[in-house]
Amino acid sequence: MQHAFFDRIHLRIIDVLQRDRSYAGSLGHVIRSPSTHIRSFLYAYEGKGTMELGGISYPLSAGCVFHFPMNQSLLINSSPEQPLCYFTVRMDYKFIEWEGTAIRSVEPDDRVLPFDFVVPMPDQETMFGEMQRLHSLWHSKQPGYEWGTKLAFMNILQRVSEQQLLQEEHNVMAQLILKCKDYIRNHYHEPLERETLARKASLSTSYFSVMFKKHTGYSPVQYITKIRLDKAKLLLRQKHLTIADVAREVGFRDPLYFAKVFSHEIGVPPREYRNM
């Protein structure tokens, strides 16, 4: 779901903090909240401990990213001998979705970010440097610091997201979905049905749909439509092709239906898009 997340997110940074050994000691090496009230992203650069989120325990160590959503019971234990030191980004966000030229705001679900609650990041030196620069930028309060901090943080989220994808390469289900995405990109001009794609993945149609959305952020139909319309926008630049030609080239049998879908998703009819 990484791409769908980044396509839709509208982010607000609330604060960027650095917590060192003295902070852990001042709290008795324990952070406890019966119900979290803010979304937080953290990067541990030293020490070790555990995070218990919603009754599930996760080990923490230097070099890992961890995060938690709102309205969850939270317990973070830091080792007294090797206290956790970390950067914290407190934030909130909404999803922005376009339907043609109309826009709507969507509340995110309980899962905060498009990766696991704890993700080990192998390049600790780079991550520490990026988090340090993020912290410095936020506290500089120079003109444009808020936008600059959001941009830098989005780049960090993308780095973590890419690391998650690398970890998922060994996941059988992730591989099946990747193959289905490749098939769609190579056969978008042909009739594509959920049942056919599910059979190729050796899954039931309903389970395939659930897994496809979990891994891509789109339903199979939404993803097929997205690929077809992206191709259609390129073909519309070729003036010698009629609208009906373009519709057939990208897998729509009915040019009128193609025009309707295109107008709904892009916000303008195909003919008007061609002349823009």
Automatic annotation (TrEMBL):
<dbReference type="InterPro" id="IPR018060">
    <property type="entry name" value="HTH_AraC"/>
</dbReference>
<dbReference type="Pfam" id="PF12833">
    <property type="entry name" value="HTH_18"/>
</dbReference>
<dbReference type="InterPro" id="IPR018062">
    <property type="entry name" value="HTH_AraC-typ_CS"/>
</dbReference>
<keyword id="KW-0805">Transcription regulation</keyword>
<dbReference type="GO" id="GO:0003700">
    <property type="term" value="F:DNA-binding transcription factor activity"/>
</dbReference>
<dbReference type="InterPro" id="IPR003313">
    <property type="entry name" value="AraC-bd"/>
</dbReference>
<feature type="domain" description="HTH araC/xylS-type">
    <location>
        <begin position="178"/>
        <end position="276"/>
    </location>
</feature>
<keyword id="KW-0238">DNA-binding</keyword>
<dbReference type="GO" id="GO:0043565">
    <property type="term" value="F:sequence-specific DNA binding"/>
</dbReference>
<protein>
    <submittedName>
        <fullName>HTH-type transcriptional activator Btr</fullName>
    </submittedName>
</protein>
<keyword id="KW-0804">Transcription</keyword>
<dbReference type="Pfam" id="PF02311">
    <property type="entry name" value="AraC_binding"/>
</dbReference>
